[in-house]
Structures are given as structure tokens and as C-alpha cells.
Structures
1.
Amino acid sequence: MCFLLWMIYAWLPDYLRSKFRLDLAGSGLHATLTLQVASACGLLSGGWLGDRLVRVRAQGRCYVVAAGLLVAAPLAPAIFAAPTIPLMQLAAAGFGFFSGLMLSNVVAGAYQMVPPQRYGLTAGCLTLAGGLAGGIGTLLGGLLDRSVGLSQPVEWFSGVCALCAVLLAIVARRKAIPVQVN
């Protein structure tokens, strides 16, 4: 997801500038404001939801991650396919909200898949993987934009995200470790 997320964060302003002939300030504003506000709402709601669901099922947080990822995945290409700025903002708001929902539970959900003595290593590996994937996504987005544009790579990686969401739900169902909630 970080691969896709950073690709969108990095290249959406340039894409909007080209597609809708916006000036740099306008494209930056349209590319970030809706996406980031929705992401903040998703982060807060997802944290709350994950904390509630883990009381019902050990896999609760992992399911929030999987659901956020699954719903966000098709909204990413919708951002680039939108024929108007309002429709792009609607797709960006959905993508931002559901990616925020997913991100709010990634580390906490991962903790339910590993023993407590591996929490530090788990958080470090997730942070490293996210940073590397994001950097590669940003670079690859720039390279692919020159040859095939951004829409097609975003579609490909959205498909990968949807597949990962399904795999996560399956693994979490079998491997999640119950947590004690006071």
C-alpha cells in the first residue's frame, strides 16, 4: 500500500496540473487537501474501530486493515480516471479515508500476529518496508509516467493491494493471537 500511496502523493499534483491545466498552487491544493483531510478522518476512525473490534474478535484490527485496503484499492485508479475535479476529489476522499483506516491498524494488527517479544522488530520491519516501497513507488511512478502514464501502474498496484487484503484476512483468521483488553 505504501508503494501506491506514495506514488499518488508524489505524482497527483503533476497529473492534475497536466490533465486539468491547473497552476502549480491549484494542482497542489486539489491533490492534497481532500486526500489528507479524509486520511486523517480515516486514521482516527480506524483506530477507534480497531480498538472496538479487537474486543469481539482477535482478528479485529487485521480485518480493519484488510477492509480498508480492499475498499481503498479500486478508489486509487478512480482518482486518475475522474473526468472532473469534483469527481477526482470524491475518489481521493474515499481513497484517503480507507487508506487511513488501514494505516491506523497496521502495526497494532501486526502485533496480533507475532509474540510480544517481537514487537520492536515487527514495527521496524513494517516501517522499513513501507519506506522502501514508498520510495520505489515514487521513483517508478515518475519513470512509468513518461512511458505509459500513471493510470495504468496505479491500476496494477491497486490490484496487488486488493489481493493482499484478501490474503491478510485469510492469514489473520488462522494466526491472530488474542489480546487481553482491560
2.
Amino acid sequence: MLAEFSSLTLVALAAGLLFAGAVKGALGVGLPLVGMPVLLLVLPAPTAVVVMAVPILLTNLWQMLAGGHVLENLRRFWPIILFLAVGMFVGSRLLVTVDEGVLIAVLGAILLGFSVLSLTRFRPAIPPRWHMRAQPLFGLAGGLIGGFSTVFGPPVSMYLVAIGLQKDRFVSAVGTTFFAGSVALNLSLAALPVYGVREGMMAMLACLPVCAGMALGQRLRAAIPQESFSRAVLLMLVATSMILIWRGIGA
């Protein structure tokens, strides 16, 4: 299985996934945003989506258990979780019907938009009376995007920021909602022909550098100024998104 890649390619993949895990450990988000572009450098888009789905599931379980407040989050955010699952089912069907170049370009555009909004510190606010009503919209948007790209986090993160959650509660809510979304993602992908034994083995191997990176990122969180680290990551994502868009257009 690994014989199809050169030693240099394997080292580069491991390093990229290690960095993606470190971003997730330090910021609580960002694993697919960083990890997917790494995989797309050497894998077809459908295969990259499947390989990334398992590390996403594992790291979100880790974050959910560490963050606590699971039952409270489920009671408060069940609409966004439900519509994430619905969107995942629909979005995953696009994975085997949409042109690969389109998928790569769309992922790049999502990545670019999220990164630019984050760099400009755009902070939309949702009035309390609209909190529950807005959840289906953000959940469905995240599910549709995530079903064919694994990147379902930005719409959900934007909602959690917009309702004004404090830092610790934000990380806790992200852990619970993202884990539920990643379960739906894996179940949706498992029913598709792109999910085979080879892809499953690659996904399990990808978990090793990702989890090592997440543990490292959690340690670095206290040592590196959060603002500096976040800004550096976002600038790197802007550059990566432009490469993906260029590749998708030319595919």
C-alpha cells in the first residue's frame, strides 16, 4: 500500500499531518483545513476525503471528552447536530458525482474565505432570540460542505462565535458538535464505493502523526502566544487555498 509513494513523499505527508494535528491541538479546530490540502498533493480528492475522515473522528472524540459538558451541549445544540447529519448525507453523494477539479477548487474557496474572515476578525453576532432558529441553517451548510470535503467546521464555528460563547465553553461545544458531525461524515462515506480496505488502512495510518501532533499542539498552546500562532497558521492557509484553487481550475 505504501510502496506506491516514495520515502520523501511519505515523510512530507507525515510532517504535514503532524502539523495539522498540532493546529487542532493548539486551536481546537483546523485539522481538515490543514490536513486536506496536504493529502490532496498526492491523493485524488475522493480518497483524500475518506483518509481524512477517520483522524477527524478520533481527534474530535478526544476533544469532546476533554472538554466536558457533553450532555448539556447535546441538549443545547441538537438542531445543529441533526442538520449537520442531514447535510452530510446529501453532500457525500456529491463526492462521486462532481468533477474532481471542482471539488478541489471549492475546498480552496472555503479555506480562503474562512481564513480571510478570521484574519479580519469578522465577528457577526446573533441575537439570543434567534439562537435556536439559526442552528438548522448553519448545521445544514456545514453538512453539505463537509460531506464532499470533510471541512464542516467553519459554519459551525462561526455560529458558536456569533452566539458569544466564552473560550472554554467554545472549545467544549466544538468538541461535542464536531464529534457528532464526524460520526455522520464517516457513516455517510462508508456507504460509498470510494470507502474500501485500502482507504481504511491509509486512514488508520494517518491517525498516528495526527494524534502525535494534537498532543504536541496541546502542550504548545500554553507556551506560544495564541494570537501569533493563530495568525501564522491563517496566513499559511491563505497561501494553501490559493494553490488549491489554481490546481482545481487547471484539473
